[in-house]
Every structure is written in structure tokens, then in C-alpha cells.
Design a protein that fits this description.
Elements lengths: L1 H32 L3 H14 L4 H13 L3 H14 L4 H13 L3 H14 L4 H13 L3 H10 L5 H14 L2 E11 L6 E10 L4 E11 L2 E11 L6 E10 L7 E11 L2 E11 L7 E12 L2 E12 L2 E16 L2 E10 L13 E15 L3 E14 L4 E14 L1
Antiparallel strand pairs: 1-2, 1-14, 2-3, 3-4, 4-5, 5-6, 6-7, 7-8, 8-9, 9-10, 10-11, 11-12, 12-13, 13-14
Helix pairs in contact: 1-2, 1-3, 2-3, 3-4, 3-5, 4-5, 5-6, 6-7, 7-8, 7-9, 8-9
Length: about 400
């Protein structure tokens, strides 16, 4: 009888303790729902002072630090949580969330691997792992991992489609037509391009154009090496025997990416048949990803005939369903021609332009884009010329 009474009292005391710990947790949640994270954290600390090993209190304290973006403090609390509850599901969920919010993709790959060792069928951990591989540009590994998953929810399938888009090469054609408001023959231009998408991407292209009643072909190559964790390079070279293009051109640039921000600087040299001196163009740019948008500002500067030439460009892209489905607006203003097709163009005094582009992905295989834009050009001799341009492009993923 005494033993039975002891068991009943023990169960009752445990129930009271659990209820009291829950009271502290509910108080913390109420404060948090009102945006009072300091008060919420204080309530959790009071509860842990009485119940230092309570799972829910320890987990919620970690969550508060994540909300406050105190990732180092969250790490400390996770160590305590896992110390009392090894292989805890909520602990793994908090750990992978920390890496995700902190955009630490290398650590997220490691933490999801640990979590999936204990919970191999959890879709949330699978999704985060696939995302971590994509963000590190490990597209081959990401595609293999996606293929091996026996069951896939809608989010994982969408990531899998994105992996294929990033990892596959492209081949395509593009063309543009420009009409002027003065007595000047229309300009036509066509391009064939092949692009290899990988950690170190590259593309080659051949462009045919008819401008100023002259026709010609230019060959161009571009290389995009990844130089470090957040550092990317760019190298280009082009040649042509036509007077409407530079005889040869070469350029290079560096881009540094930090989370949603990116900055770059570069230089380019062009040599025309009719000129002995090179034209040097210097660039500086800054870009930012936010929500479903990407904004970029880029400046072009050159010294031409002892005169400083500067052009400002702005790009705003609205992503719709994937990175190939978007609407984009380009605007430029300045005296440095962005597409020097003839040396006479560099004598331009000023120009302003706008260009609207729409791109769509059909059947996860074909990218089709179209554009329309206008440009007003003012020359040093006082002449003003208006240009209207339409363009279209079709590219195949494989």
C-alpha cells in the first residue's frame, strides 16, 4: 500500500511540474506573439531556473535567439538541448533553420546530413539539403540527390526542376531589328550562341550584323571562373574583320557576392581598324536581390579623344515562376556607347534609352524572350537621331 501511495504521489508531482513548466512556456509564447521577445526570453529563463532540463523550454529559448538573429547564442542553446536530448527532432529542425536563415550553405549541408541520418524520410530536411547543394552550385550532386529520393513533395519537385535548369547547357539564336527616324538604313543583327553551365561556365557566340550599309561577322568567347567562396571572375575575347565591329576586344571583371548583394569592377579594351589607339572602358556595378526582384546599377567610363565619357545603366528584373521566366526593364543615360558597333558612334554626345524584355520557359526545355525599346541619340554636330529596336531569342536547354 505504501509503495502504491508513493507511485501516485510521484506521478502527481511530475504532472504538477510539467504543468508549471508549461505555464512558463505559455507566458513566453504570449509575449512573443505580441512582439515582446525580451520579455519572452525572460519568461523562459525563469522557467529554466526551476526546470533546467525541460525540453520545450530549452527548444523555445533557442527559437527566440533565432528570431533575434543571435546565431551564436542559438548554437550555445542547441549544445545544451542536444546534451540532454541527443538526436532530438526539434533540435535538428532548429539547427537546420539556423543554417538556413544565416545562409551558411556549407554548414546546412552538414547539419541536414546529420538530421537525415536519424530521420531519413523527413521532407523538410530533404528540401533543405537539396537547397544547400544548389546554393553551393553543386548541381551534379543536387541532381543525383533529387533523383534518388523515393518520394517528393511539391516543394522538392520545384527545387528539382530548378536544379535541371541551372545544370543544363543552352544553345540558341537571337535577332534584333532597329529602325531610325532619319534617312538611315535599318540595322539587323543575328547571333548564334552556345553556353556551358557549370561551376566554371563559358559561352561562345557568332554575331552577324548589317549596319551603316555594311555587313560583318564577329566571334566572341566568355569565361566565368569561380575564384573563391564568394568571388567570381569574367574574361572575354572577340575578333572581327569587319569595320562595323572592333577588330579585336578583350575584357575582364571581378564580382564579389555577399548573400543578396553583389559588387563588381572590370575593364575592357577595343581596337578598331581605322584607329591606332585602343579604347579603354572601365566598369563598376552593384546589384541586390530582394523578394522576387533583382536590381542592378552599372557605370561605364572611358577617355575618348581626351574627353571623359560616362554612362549610367539601371536594370530591374521581376522573377515570376523561375529564373528564366521574368519581366525586365533596362534604362540608360550617358555618353559612353554600350554597344560600340562603329567608331563613329563614340562621337555621340548623349543618349537615353529604355528596353522592356519578357522571357518565358516552355516545357522546361525552351526559353523564348522578346524585347522592345527606344533610344534617343544626340551628336556633337547637333543632330538628333531616334532609334526603335525589337528583338527575339530562342534557346534550348539540354
Amino acid at each position: 500500500m505504501k509503495k502504491l501511495i508513493y507511485i501516485i504521489c510521484l506521478v502527481a508531482s511530475v504532472g504538477v511540474s510539467a504543468q508549471e513548466a508549461m505555464d512558463y512556456l505559455n507566458q513566453a509564447k504570449e509575449h512573443a506573439s505580441n512582439g515582446q521577445l525580451n520579455e519572452s526570453l525572460e519568461a523562459i529563463r525563469n522557467g529554466l531556473a526551476v526546470y533546467p532540463k525541460d525540453h520545450d523550454l530549452l527548444a523555445y529559448k533557442t527559437r527566440i535567439h533565432l528570431w533575434r538573429k543571435e546565431y551564436a547564442m542559438a548554437d550555445v542553446e542547441l549544445d545544451v538541448l542536444f546534451g540532454h536530448y541527443p538526436n532530438d527532432y526539434e533540435g535538428f529542425e532548429l539547427q537546420t533553420t539556423r543554417d538556413l536563415w544565416n545562409e551558411d550553405w556549407v554548414q546546412l549541408e552538414e547539419s541536414t546530413a546529420t538530421a537525415l541520418a536519424s530521420y531519413p524520410d523527413d521532407a523538410g530536411f530533404q528540401e533543405k539539403r537539396l537547397l544547400s547543394l544548389m546554393k553551393q552550385e553543386k548541381y551534379a550532386l543536387a541532381e543525383d540527390y533529387y533523383t534518388q529520393l523515393p518520394q517528393k513533395n511539391a516543394k522538392i519537385n520545384e527545387l528539382g526542376r530548378q536544379v535541371k535548369l541551372y545544370y543544363h547547357d543552352q544553345v540558341g539564336v537571337a535577332a534584333s531589328y532597329s529602325q531610325f527616324d532619319q534617312v538611315l538604313s535599318p540595322w539587323t543583327e543575328g547571333k548564334v550562341q552556345y553556353q556551358h553551365v557549370a561551376k566554371n561556365s563559358w559561352n561562345v557566340s557568332a554575331t552577324y550584323a548589317n549596319m551603316f550599309d555594311e555587313a560583318g561577322v564577329r566571334f566572341n568567347g566568355e569565361y566565368y571562373p569561380k575564384l573563391g567562396k564568394n568571388l567570381y571572375g569574367f574574361v572575354e575575347a572577340g575578333v572581327s574583320q569587319a569595320s562595323i565591329f572592333p577588330e579585336y576586344q578583350a575584357g575582364t571583371a571581378l564580382t564579389y557576392v555577399l548573400k543578396a548583394f553583389e559588387v563588381s569592377a572590370g575593364a575592357r579594351a577595343l581596337k578598331f581598324q581605322a584607329q591606332d589607339n585602343l579604347i579603354h572602358i572601365y566598369t563598376a556595378a552593384a546589384g541586390y536581390y530582394f523578394s522576387r526582384y533583382y536590381a542592378n546599377y552599372k557605370a561605364y567610363f572611358s577617355m575618348i579623344e581626351s574627353t571623359g565619357e560616362l554612362t549610367h545603366t539601371f536594370l530591374l528584373r521581376r522573377f515570376l515562376t523561375n529564373r528564366f521566366h521574368y519581366i525586365q526593364l533596362n534604362a540608360t543615360n550617358g555618353s559612353m556607347p554600350l554597344q560600340i558597333s562603329n567608331f563613329s558612334e563614340v562621337s555621340r554626345l548623349d543618349a537615353s534609352s529604355v528596353l522592356l524584355t519578357y522571357s518565358h520557359l516552355f516545357g522546361h526545355q525552351f526559353i523564348v524572350n522578346g524585347s522592345i525599346g527606344g533610344q534617343m541619340e544626340e551628336y556633337r554636330n547637333g543632330a538628333i537621331r531616334n532609334r526603335m529596336t525589337v528583338g527575339v531569342g530562342v534557346f534550348k536547354l539540354f
